[in-house]
């Protein structure tokens, strides 16, 4: 599992826990808050009605049936009240009134309750003793939907509590509000959780992006490429990346110097031995034609040393380049024409027929100097291994959004034993016409140039005979 996925899952667990428990508490607390609101209103109503009853009792004109009839008329009258999303069509409140002993003297529910002793119920018991009396009771103990809220107020006449008036409100209407509120709370919580998870996903991507860039950079180095050091910001990851980059540069530089010296020493040793041997054999008494042949050998080997040193310097400059080469728009057809022009004397010398097939108007991004060197090396190889009077095909085309350049000859092809080492430094095959080897650095230089352009190169044999080099370059610099 990737680091980004782990970070996201950690946030998922944390946010889920942080949202689940508060929302559960909120939903559980919601019912209590609704009950508090309803109970607060019922307290006012109970005291208003108790005050009205107390006034009528003090005046000696209280009739319990009058209050009951008023409740019954209210319950029978049509009602159409829209309370937010609740449609209320009936009055569902009731009351009962007790005397000072706790016996029912008026009841809006059933007349059969008249005379019943309610002194033991909390609402009556506490109110008759001057305390606040309230209770919640289910009509069916096993059915929570039959629960009702009872709120009582004392009936005070001449400073004495002479009775208790209790208002009754079924909690079914409260449950309707709760049923509507719970989904909204859950929906709001789900939206908040989704938003938090979205932000955590973006955060994990932002956090792991420098790590992924650093991984790709390390993979590129491990694959033998030389990618530019990525932008990592100013975090601890950037500091780690810089430390790794500096370590890589130091190790690579040390290893490169060692390999450079070893390879250069090894390759120069052979021509130096030839020069020393020829110099030792030259004698003034030697026939002029033989002396000239030895002198020509010395000049040839000295030139070879010069080519080795020059090419090694070019490779060193390219391999130690820490940034991508400077790119500019290049006319592909003009670039290929210049490469062919530079090799025209050799083509004429071997009477080779070079066929160019490339778009006349195509602009590509690249470094003109480096690409010229790479393509010239490939064409030089094709010339070296082509038989006199042979044909060389140089083609360029766009395939799958990439530039594909092919250099093909009609020579003997690449031996099987050489295919794995063809791009190695100083590895070279004998030329058919001279039997000599080249510096063995040309194809290595080609690979370095193509790699610096984020492309690829492969060398193989054609089905009809001969070898072909295929260079693939991106058409975008990104």
Topology:
Blueprint: H1 3-59, H2 64-76, E1 81-83, E2 86-88, E3 94-99, E4 104-107, H3 122-127, E5 134-138, E6 147-157, E7 160-170, H4 172-222, H5 236-281, H6 288-319, E8 328-331, H7 332-342, H8 344-349, E9 353-357, E10 363-366, H9 368-385, E11 391-399, E12 402-408, H10 442-452, E13 456-461, E14 467-474
Parallel strand pairs: 9-11
Antiparallel strand pairs: 1-2, 3-4, 3-7, 5-6, 6-7, 8-10, 11-12, 12-14, 13-14
Number of domains: 3
Average pLDDT metric: 80
Radius of gyration: 49 Å
Sketch the major β-sheet.
Answer: 5 strands, antiparallel
Structural commentary:
A hairpin with a 2-residue loop joins β6 (147-157) and β7. This protein has a five-stranded antiparallel sheet. A five-stranded mixed sheet has the order 9-11-12-14-13. The protein has helices spanning 3-59, 64-76, 122-127, 172-222, 236-281, 288-319, 332-342, 344-349, 368-385, 442-452; strands spanning 81-83, 86-88, 94-99, 104-107, 134-138, 147-157, 160-170, 328-331, 353-357, 363-366, 391-399, 402-408, 456-461, 467-474. It folds into three domains: 3-179, Beta-Lactamase, CATH 3.30.450; 253-323, Signal transduction histidine kinase, dimerisation/phosphotransfer (DHp) domain (Helix Hairpins); 325-478, Histidine kinase-like ATPase, C-terminal domain (Heat Shock Protein 90, 2-Layer Sandwich). It contains ten helices and 14 strands. The longest helix is centred in the first third of the chain and has 57 residues, at 3-59. α1 (3-59) runs antiparallel to α4 and α6 (288-319) packs parallel to α10. By secondary structure, it is an alpha+beta fold.
């Amino acid at each position: 599992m990737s680091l980004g996925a782990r970070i996201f899952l950690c946030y998922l667990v944390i946010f889920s826990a942080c949202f689940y428990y508060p929302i559960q508490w909120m939903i559980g607390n919601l019912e209590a808050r609704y009950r508090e609101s309803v109970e607060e209103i019922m307290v006012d109503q109970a005291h208003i009605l108790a005050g009205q009853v107390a006034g009528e009792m003090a005046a000696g004109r209280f009739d319990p049936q009058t209050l009951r009839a008023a409740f019954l008329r209210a319950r029978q009258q049509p009602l159409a009240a829209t309370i937010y999303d609740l449609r209320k069509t009936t009055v569902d409140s009731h009351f009962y009134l007790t005397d000072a002993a706790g016996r029912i003297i008026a009841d809006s529910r059933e007349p059969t309750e008249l005379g019943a002793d309610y002194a033991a119920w909390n609402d009556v018991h506490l109110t008759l003793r001057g305390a606040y009396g309230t209770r919640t009771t289910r009509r069916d103990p096993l059915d929570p939907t039959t629960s009702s809220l009872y709120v009582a107020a004392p009936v005070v006449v001449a400073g004495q509590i002479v009775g208790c008036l209790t208002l009754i409100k079924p909690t079914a209407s409260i449950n309707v509000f709760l049923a509507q509120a719970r989904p909204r709370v859950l929906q709001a919580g789900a939206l908040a959780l989704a938003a938090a998870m979205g932000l955590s996903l973006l955060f994990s991507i932002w956090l792991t992006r420098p790590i992924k860039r650093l991984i790709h950079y390390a993979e590129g180095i491990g694959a033998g490429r030389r990618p530019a050091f990525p932008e990592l910001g100013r975090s601890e990851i950037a500091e780690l990346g810089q430390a790794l980059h500096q370590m890589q540069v130091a190790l690579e530089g040390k290893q490169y110097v060692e390999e450079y010296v070893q390879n250069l020493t090894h390759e120069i040793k052979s021509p130096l031995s030839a020069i020393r041997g020829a110099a030792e054999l030259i004698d003034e008494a030697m026939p002029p034609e033989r002396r000239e042949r030895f002198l020509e050998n010395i000049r040839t080997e000295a030139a070879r040393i010069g080519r080795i040193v020059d090419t090694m310097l070019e490779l060193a400059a390219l391999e130690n380049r820490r940034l991508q080469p400077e790119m500019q728009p290049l006319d592909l057809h003009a670039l290929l024409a210049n490469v062919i022009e530079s090799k025209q004397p050799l083509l004429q010398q071997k009477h080779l027929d070079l066929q160019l097939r490339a778009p006349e108007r195509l602009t590509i991004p690249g470094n003109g100097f480096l690409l010229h060197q790479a393509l010239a090396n490939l064409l030089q190889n094709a010339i070296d291994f082509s038989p006199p009077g042979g044909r060389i095909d140089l083609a360029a085309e766009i395939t799958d959004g990439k530039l594909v350049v092919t250099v093909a000859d009609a020579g003997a092809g690449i031996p099987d034993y050489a295919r794995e080492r063809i791009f190695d430094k100083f590895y070279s095959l004998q030329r058919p016409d001279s039997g000599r080897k080249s510096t063995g650095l040309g194809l290595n230089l080609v690979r370095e140039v193509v790699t610096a352009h984020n492309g690829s190169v492969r060398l193989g044999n054609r089905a009809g005979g001969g070898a072909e080099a295929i260079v693939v370059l991106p058409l975008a610099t990104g």
